[in-house]
Amino acid sequence: MSDLTDPSLDLDARLAEILQRIPYARFLGVRAELAGDEMTAVLPFSQHLIGNPTLPAIHGGVIGAFMEMTAVAQLSLSQISPSAGLGRQPRTIDVTIEYLRSGRPRTTFARATIKRAGRRIANVQVEAWQETRAAPIAALHGHFLIGSRDEG
Amino acid sequence: MTRPVDMMRQLAPQVLMASPHAAAIGMEMVSIDPAEAVLRVRFRPDLVGDPDTGVIAGGVVTALLDHTCGQSVMAALDSYQPIATLDLRIDYMRPAGPGLDIFCHAHCYKVTRSVAFVRAQAYDVDRDDPVATAQAAFMLNANSAMSPAETVLRAMGHTPPAPGGGVKA
Question: Which ipTM value was assigned to this complex?
Answer without folding.
Answer: 0.86
